[in-house]
Amino acid sequence: MANEPSMESASAVGRALDVLFADGKSIRFEDCWLRDHCRCSSCYHSDTFQRAHHILDIPDATILSFEFDKKKIDVVWSDNHTSTYTAEFLSKFDYKTWKESRRLKPILWHGSIHDKISVVPVEKFLHSVEGAKHVFQSLLDYGVALVEGVGVSLEATEIVCKALGGVQHTIFGGMWQFTTRADHADTAYTNLPLAAHNDNTYFTEAAGLQILHCLEHKNGTGGETILVDGFHGALELKKENPEDFKFLSSFNLEAEYIEDGHHHTYSAPVIRIDNESQELVQIRFNVYDRAPMAFKNSEECRSYYRSLRNLSKYYQDPNNQWRFKLKPGTVMIMDNFRVLHGRTGFSGSRVLCGSYVARSDWLDKARALGLIQ
Amino acid sequence: MANEPSMESASAVGRALDVLFADGKSIRFEDCWLRDHCRCSSCYHSDTFQRAHHILDIPDATILSFEFDKKKIDVVWSDNHTSTYTAEFLSKFDYKTWKESRRLKPILWHGSIHDKISVVPVEKFLHSVEGAKHVFQSLLDYGVALVEGVGVSLEATEIVCKALGGVQHTIFGGMWQFTTRADHADTAYTNLPLAAHNDNTYFTEAAGLQILHCLEHKNGTGGETILVDGFHGALELKKENPEDFKFLSSFNLEAEYIEDGHHHTYSAPVIRIDNESQELVQIRFNVYDRAPMAFKNSEECRSYYRSLRNLSKYYQDPNNQWRFKLKPGTVMIMDNFRVLHGRTGFSGSRVLCGSYVARSDWLDKARALGLIQ
């Protein structure tokens, strides 16, 4: 490293230490924080990255004395314990840098993104760090990635799903495969168009990724995939109809899924924003799975319809969508917390397979690759 | 039914219909709501319980005329569509009753609850609706249930886990079995005491249920299970230290889990309350898995330590805990969103197996049994 963290000065201020770093950063460390972060072998398991003490067993000690040089600070505590903190360790806890390092930075989009997202050959994805990084970076940036050259089978698709973080098991199974026929009845699995939506709005946590692989489309036309950036839509709504954004980010909309022996339901805002940072966390948009709801009053009821329609208008506008034809051999991966998916109507025989991957599991992979903190 | 819903009167008020029911309830139905909830075969798939129209394709029509009797209302719309609504259907949407029907009603507890929770023989749980209801009602009420007479093996335990909603697959596997061998980078894989905690605070969604079955404890003592009601603790904190409750329900505490190839991390409040209802949703308390964090200022840092310590004091107080010895054959099930678990230190050879069940999956089971809406 060109600039290894180095300390210029350290001084006691009340129960805290103020540390000035060579790069100009100044950080205040409270004594309770310092004692909690003692990295000696009796306070910290360096193999499990866990503290050895319960928070109630950490002595409420004060700093008796300290000594520092550019590279470390030695602290002697009022209970005679001693702790050493390196400049490298301490410098990580500059609030602004630390907070910023944890922020996801999605690149908003609308329309076609075929020249922006990663399209990675399956062997490269599975067997090289570089390939894996391309796929996960594309998911972090755009919420979409494609893996090509995959064997046209459920088994070959499963290998890709496992490398994305592992197959999530839901009431729909682990890996699933579905066929639709032109003469099918009027159920959810039809050849009718499906407007862009998020899956699993009725689960307490929706699937993190959705993986789709078209294994076959014979004797017919249509069935184009539709993708749209849910985050971009929400932020456009915020600009144009701020009261709708406010409603959809605070009102708990109930979604439901009912079949014999199963009844999933969950109530949460359509637009989930982080309480602290106010950043977008999740879009939970599915007009089909809305549960019938009672409303507090006329205003709430009318706000529900007005705001859902206004957000729908964005998502339904072809100018905002990316439409393309999935072909056997190319696996599509999308971030179901952000990107909405749908399809145009079709004729002929179409077979798709795929699975879900839990959000925690794919972010774990991205983090292990060093792409996010 | 003694009192089938019956309508006394219906009148147009602006674009809405006011309906007075025989039991004295009065409900206002906006025209947009009514049209969205038309249950005719072209508007609604009664087999999938889904609407047939996208929200943008529902005509923004007004009510031309309506006729009612005690049992139903027929509406003619400005686009000549007609809809029929039964009194039974409409009466469900009284706001207060509807909202209340969706509220979970945990029974708070502290100390031993061995005479309160359900202890159900495995055959009864697996093969009778009554047995299943006992187990799930106990989980809804107290966050704990026991199933006894289970075969002392991972395979027999798995059958119980599947009946609870299905085995959740995480980085720890599906069904897991552990001794004091350090298979994972975690204090759980030692013989040290483990203070009461929630699992998976570092996942975007923690496990819904945790299932534990002690298959063997030979040549040693100790290893008592510790359970404590996280909700009761949080509400006691709210009474005694309201500023701590406020801090822990709004501050995003970061938790982490690190092992070779894996890095899970998640930031959310320790006390999760519903934005709308202000009711407790989840406790996310694990002092071991706290990530090192930077703070905005000294006050935030000191609030963090003060509030965590005050909440810890409640959870660590033996008067608030239920302690008992798990025996082979009895499977313990707890709601990991609410109940904290731990153990006392032990000697000898101890083998446990178990798994997680996703929250959506066990609530689905409870809902299919008619225990919750």
Automatic annotation (TrEMBL), chains A, B:
<dbReference type="Pfam" id="PF06155">
    <property type="entry name" value="GBBH-like_N"/>
</dbReference>
<dbReference type="InterPro" id="IPR038492">
    <property type="entry name" value="GBBH-like_N_sf"/>
</dbReference>
<dbReference type="InterPro" id="IPR050411">
    <property type="entry name" value="AlphaKG_dependent_hydroxylases"/>
</dbReference>
<dbReference type="GO" id="GO:0005739">
    <property type="term" value="C:mitochondrion"/>
</dbReference>
<keyword id="KW-0124">Carnitine biosynthesis</keyword>
<dbReference type="GO" id="GO:0050353">
    <property type="term" value="F:trimethyllysine dioxygenase activity"/>
</dbReference>
<dbReference type="GO" id="GO:0045329">
    <property type="term" value="P:carnitine biosynthetic process"/>
</dbReference>
<dbReference type="InterPro" id="IPR012776">
    <property type="entry name" value="Trimethyllysine_dOase"/>
</dbReference>
<dbReference type="GO" id="GO:0005506">
    <property type="term" value="F:iron ion binding"/>
</dbReference>
<protein>
    <recommendedName>
        <fullName>Trimethyllysine dioxygenase, mitochondrial</fullName>
        <ecNumber>1.14.11.8</ecNumber>
    </recommendedName>
</protein>
<keyword id="KW-0560">Oxidoreductase</keyword>
<feature type="domain" description="TauD/TfdA-like">
    <location>
        <begin position="132"/>
        <end position="356"/>
    </location>
</feature>
<comment type="function">
    <text>Converts trimethyllysine (TML) into hydroxytrimethyllysine (HTML).</text>
</comment>
<dbReference type="InterPro" id="IPR010376">
    <property type="entry name" value="GBBH-like_N"/>
</dbReference>
<comment type="similarity">
    <text>Belongs to the gamma-BBH/TMLD family.</text>
</comment>
<dbReference type="InterPro" id="IPR042098">
    <property type="entry name" value="TauD-like_sf"/>
</dbReference>
<dbReference type="Pfam" id="PF02668">
    <property type="entry name" value="TauD"/>
</dbReference>
<keyword id="KW-0479">Metal-binding</keyword>
<feature type="domain" description="Gamma-butyrobetaine hydroxylase-like N-terminal">
    <location>
        <begin position="14"/>
        <end position="90"/>
    </location>
</feature>
<dbReference type="InterPro" id="IPR003819">
    <property type="entry name" value="TauD/TfdA-like"/>
</dbReference>
<keyword id="KW-0408">Iron</keyword>
<keyword id="KW-0223">Dioxygenase</keyword>
<comment type="pathway">
    <text>Amine and polyamine biosynthesis; carnitine biosynthesis.</text>
</comment>
